[in-house]
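Hey, can you fold this one?
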Amino acid sequence: MIITIVGGGSTFTAGIVKSIALRKAELEVEEIRLFDIDKERQDRVAVLVKWILEEDLKSGIRLTVSYDPAEAYKDADFIFAQMRVGKYAMREKDEKIPLRHGCVGQETCGCGGLAYGMRTIFPMMKVIDDAEKYAKPSHWILNYSNPASIVSEACRRLRPNARIINICDMPIAIIDVVAAALNITDKKEIVYDYYGLNHFGWFTSIEYRGKDILGDLRDYIMEHEILLPDAYLKDKAALSNKNKDGNRHAKGSWYYVWKGEYEIMSNFPDTLPNTYLNYYLQQKEFVEHSDPDHTRANEVMESREKNLFDGIDRYLETGVIDETVFYAGSHGDWIADLAIALKNDTKARFLVITENRGAIPNMPYDAMVEVPAYIGKNGPEVIAQDRIPLFQQGLMMQQLNCEKLLVEGCIEGSYQKVLEAFTLNKTVPSMKVAKEVLDDMIEANKEYWPELK
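Sure. Predicted structure:
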């Protein structure tokens, strides 16, 4: 059993490796390979990964660090993909360029997400092609690379037979916060229904040990005017990026996102929205409280990114590891548990991004939707949903068509279609602004985007 991690230099790699190693018996994993095109970055992260496998867990799992796709993918059973094309330097541009034009600046939503998607489509196709060429015929690619909605649509269009499952851990991060807010310690006992597009969906029910807790959660949110646990609200230091402990999705500018759960549910109380819907339903307000000179990208570079590499440097100097420097938790657990379900045919329930094919009756057949599915050796068995309300359907269709146009424009090199995608996005106030942002994005992404004509 060989697992290859694409984007081995990521700040999330150590946490994912720890999740894999803790499930060694279920996965029967013998070798983990790290693969990245940034040798310097991957070599530094590999120091920490080696410590986890050999010193911390004494796992007996062999580590291979590679920069060659033939070596990295050869006979691999699973490929965990977590690429960030352009790294944080480009994420910063994704966020700051739209803000200069009065639009939401966010890495996966709005114009920033469209730009990031344009950078990621063709590198993801290369991962699929290399895996097809070198990995075992039975391999699975489990993709975390964002923006997952655009990546999954590109996979559907360009590599429809690829053995890939696109996933996102944000709904799980939301459930983590829900559990903490309601003092639930065994979050694995929580079962939820959900539908939408990636970063664009709604929880329609949340149950704990068979009891519906969505009403209790709604009461909590209305009372506190935010979805964050009391422990965080009483300890403001817990919300600081300088604090290495706690949920990474609850620090810094994330405070406004959790506040937005209250604001959205005050108007639309029947469902719990994915936090990313804030950027579409409260675009004006999010622009107003954003700092165009210091965005979430800067927060991450100053906290998670800096903490990790400073911690690695200290380990190399002193031999002492501070485990708080790397993030381990639901992000890694989610992808490792999905691999277990595929390998062992468990039919465990996961939320995945998949072609609709009637799962949501009043959405297009070929829409890439995010819905629950049972996972076994043959992939997802999607759980059919009821017809969704017109409000949610209308929002989803606008976003879906925006993403389809972007993918078509990227594939065809069509400036017109990409401009239409930017114009259609709900975070953009007018076609004039859409064109201004797009033209700035073209200049910023010259090294990464196909030429648009």
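The first strand starts at residue 2 and ends at 6. Let me know if you want another pass with a different chain boundary.
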